[in-house]
Amino acid sequence: MSSATLPLRSQLDRARRAWRASPMPRFVAWWSGELAALLPPRWRALFGGGLAWYLLRHEGDEWVVRRAGHLDVLARWSSQLDATSQQVALRDALRGVDTEDLRLALCLDPFMVLRPRLSLPLAARDNLQQIGAFEMDRQTPFRVEQVRYDVRELRAAAPAGRFAAELVVAPRATLDPLLARLAASGLQVDALDVAAGADRLGANLLPPELLPRRQHPRQRLNLALGAAAIVLLVLSLLQFLHNRESALEQMRSDVEAMRGDAQQVAGLRQQLQDNAGAAGFLAERKRNRVSALAVMQDLSQRLPTTAWLERLSIDNTGQVGFQGQSPQAARLVDALKGSPVITDANFQGTIQVDPTTGKERFYMVAQLRKPAEAKPKPAPATVGGAP
After folding, report:
1. CA-based, 20 to 30 A from 374: which of 142, 295, 331, 356?
2. What is the reported pLDDT for 294?
3. 128-139 helix and 6-21 helix, angle to the nearest 10 degrees
C-alpha cells in the first residue's frame, strides 16, 4: 500500500467502524425491510438491489462459484480453459445479477492462513494496518514483505480501554501463484478472503493494485437524483418563502387600505363633531341673544308713526345702533324706556335738522337685553304722534 493512500484508507476505516458501531445500520436495515414489505413482489425485485457477494474457490484444478451463505454450487469449470471460456462460464453462472451489485471474493482455505488474536488499545483503531505490520514479527514467523495481511476488529469482550482484533496472514508464496492463475483466466475479484463455512470471513488480503475499478452508473444516477431532490427542496422552500412574502405584502396592503378607511372615518367623525359643536354654538347663541326680528318689532311698536328709521345694526357685543328722523327726536328716549328687548337707549352725537324734510336727524345706541330678561311688555300708547 502506497503512502499516499494510507491516510484515505485510515479515514475510510474510521468512518466504517463508527458506522458499524452506531445503531444506524440496524435501524436502516429494519426500515428498509418494512418499506420493501409494502411494495408488490415485482417492485421488490426491481428495487431490491444491494451488494450481492459470490464466492470463488479453487478446488483441485477447477474454479467453483457459490453465493455467499449458500452451499449450492452455481458453476464449476476447469482452470485449464482459455481466458475467454472461463469468463463466459462465470458470466453464465452470474446471469441475472446486476453487475453494479455483484461482488466476487476469492476465498482461501482456512489452513492457508494464520489468524492470531490481538488485544489492542482503543487508540490503535485508526492505524490497524500499521499495527498489523508492527505485530507481524511478534505474532507470526514471517516478515511483512513475505505475506499479505489484514487486521479485522472482532465483536468480542476485551479489557477496559482495549478492543479485540484478529490478524489474518497468508504467505505470498502461497498467494502469488493463485493470483497469477486468476489473472491468467481474466477474472477479477473484489476481495481475497478466507472461507468460513458457506460464507466468507470478512477480511481482504487483496493488494490495493489488484483492486478492480468499478463504474457506478447507479451511484451517479443516485447522486443526480439526490442533487435534484435537494434543488427541488430548495425551490419548494423558496416558493414557500415567496408565498409567505406575497401573503405578507397582501396583508400589508389590506392594512394600509383599512388604515386609510379608518383615517377617513376619523376625519368624518371629527367633521361631524365640529359641525355638531358649531350647531350647538349657534343654538346656544340663539338662546342667549334676542333676535333682530324681535328688535325691529319692538322698535316699530314704540317709535311714533311720524318717525322712521334709515338704518339699523346689531353687532356681536349686543349693541344696537339705529339712525332715522323724527319731528321730536328728544322724546324718543322716553318712548324706548321699558323695552323688553333693549335698554340704555341714548343719543350718540348731536341732533340735526334735515333741510329737506325739516325733521330732526338722530343716531341712537342701545344694548340688547338677555333672553331671560326680555319679557314682552305692551308698548305705551302714543298721543298725537308721540309716546
Report:
1. 331
2. 83
3. 100
User: What pLDDT is recorded for position 384?
Assistant: 40
Q: How far apart are CA 244 and CA 247, in angstroms?
A: 5
Q: Say if CB 142 and CB 171 are below 8 A apart.
A: yes
DSSP structural state of residue 113: S
Q: Which three cell numbers stand for residue 206?
A: 487483496
Q: How far apart are CA 235 and CA 214, in angstroms?
A: 34
Q: Are 107 and 194 in contact (CB under 8 A)?
A: yes
> How crowded is residue 147: how many other Cβ atoms within 10 Å of its Cβ?
24
Euclidean distance between CA atoms 26 and 91, whole angstroms: 33
Give pLDDT < 70 ranges for the chain. Answer: 1-10, 13, 17, 21, 44-50, 214-218, 285-286, 288, 371-387
Q: What are phi and psi of 161, to 5 degrees?
A: 85, 5
- Closest of 354, 359, 374 to residue 304, by C-alpha: 359
H-assigned helices in the chain: 6-21, 24-37, 41-47, 83-93, 128-139, 172-184, 217-288, 292-302, 332-336
Q: Please report the DSSP string for 213-232 in residue order.
A: ----HHHHHHHHHHHHHHHH
Cα Rg of the chain (Å, integer): 61
How far, CA to CA in Å, does 224 sit from each of 217, 230, 232? 10, 10, 12
At 387 the pLDDT is 35
pLDDT of residue 44: 67
Place of cell 414489505: 37
pLDDT digits (tens, 9 = 90+) for 86-128: 999 998 988 888 777 888 999 999 999 999 999 989 888 878 8
